[in-house]
Amino acid sequence: MKLNTIPKIKNTNANNFFLLCGPCAIEGEEMALRIAERVVEITSKLEIPYVFKGSFKKANRSRIDSFTGIGDEKALKILRKVSETFDVPTITDIHEISDAALAAEYVDILQIPAFLVRQTDLVVAAAETGKTVNLKKGQFMSPESMKHAVTKVKDCNNENVMVTDRGTMFGYSDMIVDFRGIPTMKEYATTVLDVTHSLQQPNQSSGVTGGRPDMIETIARAGIATGVDGLFMETHFDPANAKSDGANMLHLDHLENLLSHLVAIRKTINGF
To answer: Terminus of the chain with fewer CB atoms < 10 Å: N or C?
Structure first.
């Protein structure tokens, strides 16, 4: 996939990693614009190609009383407003076949969640919109097996596909990143590392997913050193009160410092 095929993306000649970043879920217009404004400011300064991320709904929830969204079209219209306000591309995840055409009207990249990446009809529906497709690697799948998901997209005459590693299940309540998978997946697709979801601690007895945000920089640094094309991370100005995945999100105040370190590492890697 060529990065410059994504509408509105900037800094593609900076020889930097690209960034998919934003809140886990769209909780409202004000919060989305506040987060987007800050991330755009940082990535413009550091010359990082940037895509705003936000889920228009959350279908993979542990409990029935978990937050799922503010309304599909309401959230999608907010994603469109973010794109128009800051002139940046946007990405959101889809969960049902009917979501593909709906979301494609509002965003630039459709993301297939890890739990659903083997669902052929869903992957094909996303591919047939002509939008760039981001395939999250299943927590239960090998890096090698993701090649088949990529092939499903390309068989729909859509070459704009990338894969994202978001960790592999380790026991019942922890995730690990096997960095050997990064060069493997890069052989057949643009490869992204999802830093924050890789640090989730799912299946907690409370029904609320835990996380290790203290390890975000460690995993991100390792990803850049391993040669990932892009990074995915979720951020919020108040993670403790976020309505989804607050336990593993990066505080927005820490984002610039982290990205500055990662850009420095990338420049060093580029010099080899």
So the answer is: C
- Domains and their CATH numbers in the chain: 3-267 (3.20.20.70)
Q: What is the CA radius of gyration of the chain?
A: 17
- Dihedral in degrees, nearest 10, Cα atoms 240, 67, 248, 78: -90
The fraction of the chain above a pLDDT of 70, given in percent, is 94
Question: Looking at the whole model, is its pTM more than 0.85?
Answer: yes
41 or 204, which is more confident: 41
Give 180-184's long-range contacts (Cβ < 8 A, gap of 24+). 180/143, 181/137, 181/142, 181/143, 182/143, 182/223, 182/226, 182/227, 182/228, 183/226, 183/227, 184/143, 184/144
Q: How confident is the model at residue 178 (pLDDT cuts 50, 70, 90)?
A: very high
Mean pLDDT, to the nearest integer, of 65-77?
Answer: 88
